[in-house]
Design a protein that fits this description.
The structure is a single chain. The chain has 8 helices and 18 strands. The chain is an alpha+beta fold. The chain has 2 domains: 216 residues, CNF1/YfiH-like putative cysteine hydrolases (4-Layer Sandwich); 52 residues, no CATH class. An 8-stranded mixed β-sheet has the order 1-2-3-4-18-11-7-9. It has a 6-stranded mixed β-sheet with strand order 8-10-13-12-14-17. It has a two-stranded antiparallel sheet with strand order 5-6. A hairpin with a 2-residue loop joins strand 2 and strand 3. It starts with 5 loop residues before the first helix and ends with a strand. The N terminus is likely disordered.
């Protein structure tokens, strides 16, 4: 019998590892069209499930194409989102796990789950050491952060917009792991996933002023740090009466850098912090971006859990 060709031997729908879209120290897997980003340093733990979704491989209809939107939005059908979540968990080999997403509201509220919650909890972070539970946060520009304590087998998932970052939600999640699971910051591994980058995330100078009031290194988070209080050296050119300062232009904020700095500041090691360089606003082919698509944006989901 003649030998089968390589393509014939390949199972239909088999997992493929891709590197085209994944940044350094990250990998991309394609499972039946569902594309997932992962950190190899976390994937090496056989007891751990984790992944960052993209928009590929879904059942939702958006702008004439099928997308993997994992959050309930007005434009999408509930049945499509549930099917998308099933496909996402299947791609992660986590169908047997109970998904525990949150009702997010840009807070610093973190829940510790002892078991499967009866309904979605209001908050922007969750943590657990219980096997069988898949923690999830939804994003469409904000920063998803997954935390793992491999020594005590505890995990956390965090949603950090600028308000959550200002409130130090990632730091508080680590603190909750320390209190409940006896975790140590030096042992924790963090994955900071795809989000809107410092190339695209413009905010008002009042936001920069708020960051300066909380962080000594706040200027490092912005492209050109301004709070709006700086004097205009050429005020006379705007032909406005004295004392009428023109409104300052916006500044660009790098949320991922801000969260990384906070985690480093409480003792996480540089080698244990993995930051995606992919910008959700720059890559509409791969991600949803609320800044770019507004109400017609879908939602990515980032999940982490402990296998039973």
């Amino acid at each position: 019998m003649p030998a089968k060709s390589k393509s014939a031997r390949k199972k239909k729908g088999a997992t493929r590892t891709r590197a085209s879209s994944a940044p350094h120290n990250w990998s991309e897997r394609d499972v039946k069209g569902v594309r997932i980003l992962q950190v190899p340093a976390l994937a090496k733990f056989p007891w751990l499930v984790h992944g960052f979704s993209t928009r590929a491989g879904g059942a939702s209809e958006l702008d004439g194409s099928k997308v993997l939107s994992l959050g309930f939005t007005e434009w999408d059908q509930r049945e499509s989102v549930l099917e998308n979540r099933r496909r996402f968990q299947t791609a992660l080999h986590a169908n047997e796990m109970a998904l525990a997403p949150l009702k997010q509201f840009h807070s610093d509220v973190i829940h510790v789950f002892e078991g499967v919650p009866g309904e979605a909890s209001r908050g922007d972070g969750s943590a657990t050491n219980r096997p069988g539970l898949l923690l999830g946060v939804q994003t469409a520009d904000c920063v998803p952060i997954l935390l793992v304590d491999p020594k005590n087998r505890a995990v956390a998932a965090v949603h950090a917009g600028w308000r959550g970052t200002l409130a130090r939600i990632a730091v508080k999640a680590v603190g909750r792991m320390q209190m409940r699971f006896d975790s140590k910051a030096a042992d924790i591994v963090a994955a900071i996933g795809p989000a809107i980058g410092g190339c695209c995330y413009d905010v008002g100078t009042e936001v920069a002023a708020e960051f300066l009031s909380q962080f000594a290194d706040a200027p490092d988070f912005f492209d050109e740090f301004r709070t709006g209080d700086e004097p205009n050296p050429i005020q006379w050119l705007n032909r406005m009466p004295p004392g009428h300062q023109p409104p300052p232009k916006n500044v660009l904020l790098d949320l991922r850098n801000a969260n990384r700095a906070q985690l480093r500041g409480i003792g996480l090691k540089d080698k244990n912090i993995f930051v995606s360089s992919l910008c959700t606003a720059c890559r509409p082919d791969l991600f949803f971006s609320y800044r770019k698509q507004s109400a017609m944006s879908g939602r990515q989901m980032s999940v982490i859990g402990i296998r039973e």
